[in-house]
Amino acid sequence: MLRSLVGSEMCIRDRLRTARNWFHASQFLPLVLYYLGSSERPTKFPATISFTIRKGLPKWIHHLIWLRGWAHFYAILRRRGSASLRAFCLQMVATGVVCTFICAIGQSEKMDKVHFLTAGLYMLDHILLIDLIGVDWRFRLAFYASFGTMVVALRQKKRIEKQAALPSEGDVGNVELERLRSTRLDTQAHRDMWWYELIVMVCENGLFSAFVSGMTSNATLKAL
Question: What integer pLDDT is reported at residue 3 of this predicted model?
């Protein structure tokens, strides 16, 4: 009996590690492919995850690997998770599919609104999932710090765009976007915009990295 329980725990831990590795790969491999110029040239830096996976090879690589990560994680939930937790995670997958598969940014104004709504919901879902699966407090702290800093930087970026009547990333080509920023923003505002975008990029990647890394903490294993 004890041997069976230990084997089960090891199996769950291995599954969690596998899911974690797939999720990390879905975040960073498309980013590398984007900056290698696989989907467009010139590339844009800094840029959000949504922007770098909106088309081309990074898009399809992200989708395939991300679904693979969820498949491994859901396999654990089928064995250990409650019905409500499984339903919640299926909702997260559906939200992610609408956000990045169907309503990738840059298609239309209406699609962009759906994208930003579902992107925000997907991030907020992680706050509840952190509690549901018992992620260790250190990873929670990193997640919340990244999330809060990202929101502040994003609001400042949007403020500058609104004041200068600038399009957002994805609304126009990268060259045209930079031209508009150069002509409509003074030197300081242009510099501020770049730094705010960099903060958003770092913190967006940081919050997902913190959550995914925390999936394999002992607290998570006990909660499941």
Answer: 41
Q: Distance between CA atoms of 88 and 64, rounded to whole angstroms?
A: 21
Residue reference for tokens 């989708």: 63
Burial, 87: exposed, middle or buried (Cβ in 10 Å; 0-12, 13-18, 19+)?
exposed
Low-confidence residues of the chain: pLDDT under 70: 1-9, 218-224
Give pTM, 2 decimals: 0.90
Which amino acid appears at position 26 of this protein? S
| Alpha-carbon distances, residue 2 vs 5, 217, 219 (angstroms) | 5, 22, 21
Q: Which residues contact 84 (CB under 8 A, 6 or more apart)?
A: none
- Spatial CA neighbour of 129 closest among 52, 207, 30, 26: 207
User: Residue 36's CB: how many other CB atoms inside 10 A?
Assistant: 12
- CA–CA distance from 149 to each of 46, 203, 220 (Å)? 16, 7, 25
